[in-house]
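Bumping my old thread because nobody answered last time. Still need a sequence for this structure:
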């Protein structure tokens, strides 16, 4: 790394570093990839805009959905897990991707356990398993009751630390370095003080997580601002399925809550809790054959519709009655602590809950091996659209996806390097610090929450787009917040474009003005790219002429 020499007038890079692979993100996908890449002999540099242990992974409560060969329900199988995933995905999953990822799940979990992950034990020396919404069997393994993500993150951070993996904490990636032919060969970053730097590498892996901060209330941490999707789009990659944002049906409700809200894991319903409205009536009775364990899009939609009539005079939350769940405090210690913090005792009181933005089913289009359409750019985890989730994610499939595709992406990078398919980073010129479009974050979040959350229509989506246009200004990204706001702005614009064009309701995408599912015209994904002026446009062949 060279010493800092900063030019405040041009804001050009003041330091550089080099590696074979730069990994952006330290969640399950990023750390799994970095560890595997180091095993394969690559020089790896990991970048995270917070501390190494921060991110979405550690907040995951439910567990890892996996069918282990030696411990599963009678009659359960990977094939049944595939079927459940395809059903939840509402016709937009890639069956090959689903089959490949889920089939590799047992090996991925075995590796994680060998690295020290401790999952909760059940009877006869087997792992404890629970059932969550959309699953036809008890196949979700968990750790610490409802602290699975924290255990997965602890294990991976310990493994990375033990291997002395180099990690740049509190650095945020801004844009990709590109060669004259368009290959990615590194990234520009801002350090904690806002000083620009350049990381040169023939391969960059996006593993930056989701985009929950598009909305006022979310289960995601403050750093989930869609940075990877924005960077990938600006690098020339294509995104897909961005209109499908899964809202978790049950986050803990507190009046006027903003930002990350405590999650009430779906496993609580798996143990027998039921949703009731303000008048005490069941929310899910007669809505779906699986009742309270219906897929998340179904439950979130049912809650939203029920709230429209304000039963019992309550129009902003419902209740999760878990008073019949034995040993709640021990089984769900994280949820119990969050409830007690607001004066609710789950053993005696129904838990106030409401839907909130939870998981992005879409992202940068990538194979199960992480390869995107841009040489040198890879994506894994929530930032990627592999085809596993389709229009709605099946509960607890995300940690498994990160483990499987993170490893596969590292192996793809090593193979591409060995085959001479990646660019020489010296061919990429460090760009001048360009200008980005940034909307005012509060206005963006309010507009997206009001018009582009669970219930959408053409008029509201147009209003949200107008709000973004009016609150957006151009400027150089001088701080981490600037980069985040630019990412949120670009991703919001792309999501609105896709949501406005999809004139049907499917999975997480619910259009009040087009309530039916249309498999004739819309059983396909929409692709999004940036046009020469940097605006997101629909790139799939069917829509190109219509947009033009």
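Sorry it took so long. Here it is:
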């Amino acid at each position: 790394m060279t010493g800092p020499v900063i030019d405040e007038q041009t804001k050009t890079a003041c330091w550089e570093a080099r590696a074979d692979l730069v990994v952006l993100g330290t969640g399950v996908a990023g750390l799994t990839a970095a560890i595997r890449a180091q095993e394969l002999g690559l020089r790896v540099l990991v970048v995270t805009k917070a501390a190494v242990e921060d991110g979405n992974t550690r907040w995951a409560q439910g567990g890892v959905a996996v069918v282990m060969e030696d411990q599963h329900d009678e009659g359960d199988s990977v094939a049944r897990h595939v079927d459940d995933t395809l059903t939840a995905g509402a016709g937009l999953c890639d069956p090959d991707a689903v089959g490949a990822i889920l089939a590799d799940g047992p090996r991925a979990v075995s590796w994680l356990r060998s690295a020290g992950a401790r999952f909760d034990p059940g009877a006869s020396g087997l792992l404890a398993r629970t059932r969550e919404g959309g699953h036809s069997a008890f196949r979700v393994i968990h750790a610490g009751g409802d602290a699975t993500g924290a255990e997965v993150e602890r294990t991976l951070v310990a493994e990375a630390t033990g291997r002395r993996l180099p990690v740049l904490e509190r650095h945020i990636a801004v844009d990709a370095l590109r060669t004259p032919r368009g290959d990615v060969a590194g990234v520009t970053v801002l350090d904690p003080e806002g000083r620009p730097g350049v990381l040169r590498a023939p391969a960059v892996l996006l593993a930056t997580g989701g985009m929950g901060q598009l909305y006022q209330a979310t289960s995601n941490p403050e750093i989930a601002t869609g940075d990877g999707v924005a960077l990938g789009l600006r690098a020339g990659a294509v995104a897909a399925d961005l209109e499908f944002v899964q809202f978790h049906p049950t986050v803990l409700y507190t009046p006027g809550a903003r930002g990350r809200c405590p999650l009430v894991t779906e496993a609580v319903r798996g143990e027998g809790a039921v949703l009731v409205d303000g008048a005490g009536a069941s929310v899910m009775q007669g809505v779906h054959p699986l009742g309270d364990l219906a897929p998340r899009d179904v439950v979130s939609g049912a809650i939203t519709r029920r709230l429209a009539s304000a039963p019992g005079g309550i129009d902003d939350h419902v209740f999760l009655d878990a008073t019949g769940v034995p040993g709640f405090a021990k089984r769900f210690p994280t949820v119990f602590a969050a409830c007690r913090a607001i004066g609710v005792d789950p053993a005696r009181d129904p838990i106030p809950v409401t839907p909130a933005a939870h998981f992005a089913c879409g992202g940068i289009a990538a194979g199960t091996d992480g390869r995107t359409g841009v040489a040198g750019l890879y994506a894994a985890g929530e930032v990627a659209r592999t085809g596993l989730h389709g229009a709605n994610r099946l509960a607890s499939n995300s940690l498994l996806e990160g483990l499987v595709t993170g490893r596969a992406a590292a192996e793809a990078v090593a193979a591409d390097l060995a085959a001479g398919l990646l660019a020489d980073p010296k061919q990429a010129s460090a760009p001048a610090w360009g200008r980005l479009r940034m909307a005012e974050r509060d206005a963006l979040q309010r507009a997206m929450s009001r018009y582009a959350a669970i219930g959408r229509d053409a008029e509201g989506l147009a209003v949200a787009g107008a709000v973004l246009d009016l609150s957006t200004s151009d400027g150089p990204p001088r701080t981490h917040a600037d980069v985040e706001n630019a990412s949120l702005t670009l991703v919001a614009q792309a999501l609105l474009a896709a949501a406005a064009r999809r004139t049907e309701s499917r999975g997480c995408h619910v259009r009040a003005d087009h309530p039916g599912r249309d498999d004739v015209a819309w059983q396909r994904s929409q692709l999004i790219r940036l046009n020469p002026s940097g605006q997101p446009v629909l790139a799939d062949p069917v829509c190109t002429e219509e947009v033009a």
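Confidence is low (pLDDT under 50) at residues 1-10, 542-548. Let me know if any region looks off to you.
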